[in-house]
């Protein structure tokens, strides 16, 4: 039987609650005659590891992950450690080390979920946001000088390369082409950012020629936020820079009902390295350690993980089980206005996988 090696990195906060829940659901799926098995390895990296060792993960940590088939990640972020230390020391180290340059973020309104847009039905909102995940505003280029003096200066330089923009555009056009509507919106800000974003637009136009069957348009990022709210059905696949897509995808998650539901994949499309799947939410300091976290974002991320492994049928079965569970308001966690706990939602998904 085929065995997939999955690295689990719960990280911090509610990551420690939702990643084990995700593992439980994947185990149940494999045990219910899926035709494959999993070999899980857990890594206790994150804030606790930082307190013990002075870093978020070991220097040779990537070596331990390299031969895994995929990574299931929770969250990096600890109330007692600066956010840029936790983020750069763990999540970005993996994303950048493994050149996971395409960050894919699907958004749908799942059955039973009350989304805030009153004129929007589930069929009006079915998006995938493709986020450039390797450079741009989060390239890490910049610095500080004269620290603490009145003349202090600090820069974060957005850096875009032709190769980097070409590969994310090609990925986004290909993804749009694979979806029924074959429609892509290229998000830009080339009116105000007159160098890199102009190159971004030029490359979008050039790459579009390779995909004559994909309808595409361009939208400025600020106008795009309004369009997401006012005309959600006019959007399908979107591609945006690292920063723009970071913001748009939190908006997308909220419009679909909750940050606790939204999944993401950090993908190396060339499959040189393992790809990494995670809920888009963070450590949720306000509810951590209480068993209140919504695990649905992690479960949906597990669906993306299965799709990436080529296990389409198992992925569809898990998604079906998730949607049956969200359809029942008694199984909603606090973020959705319900009273269910992480363990209740997990048990409900597991039991639906068993009874099939
Ligand atoms: P957050 O996503 O942790 O929380 C925002 C709000 O949403 C909180 O009220 C939280 O309770 C709620 N929420 C989020 N996920 C939920 C879930 N699954 N179920 C129920 N409620 C949920 O964002 P934040 O407060 O901006 O960040 C907290 C920490 O997490 C920071 O250290 C930040 O850097 C980190 N963070 C990490 C990642 C990541 O590793 N991918 C992403 C975002 C934030
Ligand atoms: Mn974010």
Automatic annotation (TrEMBL):
Gene Ontology MF terms: D-malate dehydrogenase (decarboxylating) (NAD+) activity; magnesium ion binding; NAD binding
Catalytic activity: (R)-malate + NAD(+) = pyruvate + CO2 + NADH
InterPro entries: ICDH/IPMDH (IPR050501), IsoCit/isopropylmalate_DH_CS (IPR019818), IsoPropMal-DH-like_dom (IPR024084), TTC_DH (IPR011829)
Domain Isopropylmalate dehydrogenase-like stretches: 5-349
Name listed for the protein in its UniProt record: D-malate dehydrogenase (decarboxylating)
Swiss-Prot/TrEMBL keywords: Manganese, Metal-binding, NAD, Oxidoreductase
Family: Belongs to the isocitrate and isopropylmalate dehydrogenases family.
Native organism: Ramlibacter cellulosilyticus
Documented EC number(s): 1.1.1.83
Residues forming coiled coils: none
Required cofactor(s): Mg(2+); Mn(2+)
């Amino acid at each position: 039987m085929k065995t997939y090696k999955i690295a689990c990195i719960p990280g911090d906060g509610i990551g420690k609650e939702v990643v084990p829940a995700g593992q439980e659901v994947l185990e149940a799926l494999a045990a219910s005659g899926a035709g494959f098995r999993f070999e899980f390895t857990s890594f206790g990296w994150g804030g606790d590891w930082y307190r013990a060792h002075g870093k978020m993960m070991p220097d040779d940590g990537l070596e331990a992950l390299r031969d895994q088939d995929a990574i299931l990640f929770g969250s990096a972020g600890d109330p007692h450690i600066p956010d840029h230390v936790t983020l750069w020391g763990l999540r970005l180290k993996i994303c950048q080390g493994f050149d996971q340059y395409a960050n894919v973020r699907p958004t749908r309104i799942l059955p039973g979920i009350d989304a805030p847009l009153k004129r929007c039905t589930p069929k009006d909102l079915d998006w995938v946001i493709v986020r450039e995940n390797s450079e741009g505003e989060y390239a890490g280029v910049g610095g500080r000088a004269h620290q603490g003096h009145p003349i202090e200066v600090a820069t974060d330089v957005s850096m875009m390369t032709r190769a980097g923009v070409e590969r994310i555009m090609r990925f986004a056009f290909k993804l749009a082409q694979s979806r029924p509507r074959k429609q892509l919106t290229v998000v830009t800000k080339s009116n105000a950012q007159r160098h890199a974003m102009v190159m971004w637009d030029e490359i979008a136009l050039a790459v579009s020629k390779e995909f004559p069957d994909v309808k595409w348009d361009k939208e400025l990022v600020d106008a795009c936020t309004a369009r997401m709210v006012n005309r959600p059905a006019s959007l399908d696949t979107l591609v945006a820079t690292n920063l723009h897509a970071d913001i748009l995808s939190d908006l997308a998650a909220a419009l679909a009902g909750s940050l606790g539901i939204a999944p993401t994949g950090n993908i190396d499309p060339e499959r040189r390295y393992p790809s990494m799947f995670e809920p888009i939410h963070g450590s949720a300091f306000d509810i951590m350690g209480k068993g209140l976290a919504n695990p649905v974002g992690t479960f949906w991320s597990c669906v993306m993980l299965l799709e990436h492994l080529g296990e389409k049928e198992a992925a569809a079965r898990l998604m079906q089980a998730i949607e049956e569970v969200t359809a029942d308001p008694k199984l909603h966690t606090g973020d959705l206005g319900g009273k269910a706990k992480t363990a209740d939602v997990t048990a409900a998904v597991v039991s639906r996988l068993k009874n099939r």
